[in-house]
Amino acid sequence: MQEKYYMTTAIAYTSRKPHIGNSYEVVLSDAIARYQRQIGKDVFFMTGTDEHGQKIEEYANKAGISPKEYVDGVAGEIRSIVDLLETSYDHFIRTTDEQHEKVVQKIFRKLYDQGDIYKSEYEGWYCTPCESFFTETQLKDGCCPDCGAKVTKTKEETYFFKMSKYQDRLMQYIEDHPDFIQPEARKKEMVNNFLKPGLQDLCVSRTSFKWGVPVDFDPKHVIYVWIDALSNYITGLGYDPDGSSEQFKKYWPADVHIIGKDILRFHTIYWPIMLMALDLPLPKHIFGHPWLLFGSDKMSKSKGNVMYADDLAKIFGVEAIRYYVLSEMPFASDGSITYETLIARYNSDLANTLGNLVNRSIAMADKYFSKTVCNKGVADEMDADLIACCHKAIADLHKNMDNFRVADGLEAVLTLARRANKYIDETTPWVLAKDESKKDRLETVMYNLLETIRYIAILLESFMPQTSASILEQIGAKEKSLESLEQFGKEASITVGEAKVLFSRLDEKVVAEQIASMQPTIKKEEKKDPQDKANVIINIDDFSKVELRVAKITECEKVKKSKKLYRLTVDLGYETRTVASGIAPYYTVEELIGKKVILVSNLAPAKLCGVESQGMLLAADAGENDVKVIFIDDSVPEGSKIH
């Protein structure tokens, strides 16, 4: 009997189109699901959308449409992106699905009837973006401790869930199941910051808005996000308090919930306690993945640093986007994406290491052996090392994927591709081809090379399914299963097909033009009258996002490719940075060295004429053809924050 494997993503909130940082989660989950299928498990993979709440109601009102019309549009957009990214989900759930809403009402009633939910009144601070209540002491500088948004004083009748009743039981469960919450650092955070200080009862209904699942025995209340959204993991399988489906009985408990680290508390505390109250088994693992940042910053429309998967796919292709986000995200710390790093990794890893390996290997097999090669068994130490690397790649893939270390699993495959390229350099097939007496050695080399490429292609299937299939087709592979890799040289002969370019090298300038052409709105805003910008009103929250610090210019030189740019080295006291600044027409090098300036220190890095600029100097327009840098008194220490 096949071993079952049930996994989910968190369901995406239908407030707006998801950026690539949001979409990363579904690609990560898909790689895990594909791997589990590849090793022979019966996988059920679910994703979907979370569609209720006050924020949705507010967005719909602003748009002048009903909440259902609003979420239908956004949910459709989310699903189209999920499909674009080659996600092999088995079910896409929406919390507006009729069956889900009916079962959520039953769950609420069951918890109420058994005394786990009670009616009372809530008075405290509410954060609309997070849909969370906070006490006065939990606020950070008077704002939401999670997202930093403004909170509003709220008082309303509500139902509460008795979280404290299950606190000790959950603590014991986490202690008895040390790999329940992963990574380890996230587990410590949940236990030390939330469980040990003690749990407060949780607000699970609202009366101040209507867009939600009504409490069927008290219709002025709607069931709040925690019970509604979190229950999707069981309602989507067919759970029902009055009698669950065979599918639910087969797949529950979940093998893993893949979620972002920012919603870990809800999934590792609220959700397990709800399951305990329902007398259901807990998921085996909850993996809180890190964030994908733009450079070193969170993606945000207000910061102008948002990337969308569909836009990126038009330039780089879906497979390259999958490769980048999966390879660039560490297990426990945040990953980073910029257009520059995307281009660099595309050219180095995909076009050169992988694409060039496949292309030239097929070309040599065609040139030297008219496409068909056999293993003539003329081997030496280099062959043994290559074969050992093939088996090591398999072992490394299993070890890493079984522990959700997807980036490390993918790196094991790329390491094998690099080793194969080195094998070509070591064996020099073009030299062997000149000596007729070494034809059998040449054929052995080509066989080993193509067999190694078969290993690479099969191991890539979880990460880059289209690329994997294309490589296997090009090399004419008959054996395509993971099991076939247990023996190197499974096929007696290999007949390659036509070589096709997998990844063509990208020109940075061409890509920059493509990016610019896809951002017409930004261009229009740049062409507005400068006086319009002067009249834009911002609030203190907007201004507080800009970090200004005193920096000392320690080095200065002209950028060769530009008439206007200086490459500056600035000292912030705690670190030095490189800044590209267009002030060369207005100052000599000598006038700048040693001067203290004001640096916008939290600006996303940008590449200007080949120089990665890590900040921006403040300067004033002092006339039609004059700019004055704002210098700071020498007595102000480097790194001082400007308020």
Short recap of the structure:
By secondary structure, the protein is an alpha/beta fold. A hairpin with a 4-residue loop joins strand 20 (566-571) and strand 21 (576-581).
Q: Which residues sit in consecutive blocks of at least 5 with pLDDT less than 50?
A: 520-537
Global structural class: alpha/beta
Q: Which range best describes the helical content: under 10%, 10-25%, 25-40%, 40-55%, 55-70% or over 70%?
A: 40-55%
DSSP strand (E) fraction? 15-25%
Helix count, DSSP H or I runs of 4 or more residues: 23
Shape: flat
Largest sheet: 7 strands, parallel
Number of strands: 29
The separation of the N and C termini measures 66 Å
Look at the structure and give the mean pLDDT: 89
Kindly provide the radius of gyration, computed on alpha-carbon positions and rounded to a whole number of angstroms: 29 Å
Keywords:
single chain; 643 residues; alpha/beta; 7-stranded parallel sheet; 7-stranded antiparallel sheet; 29 strands; flat
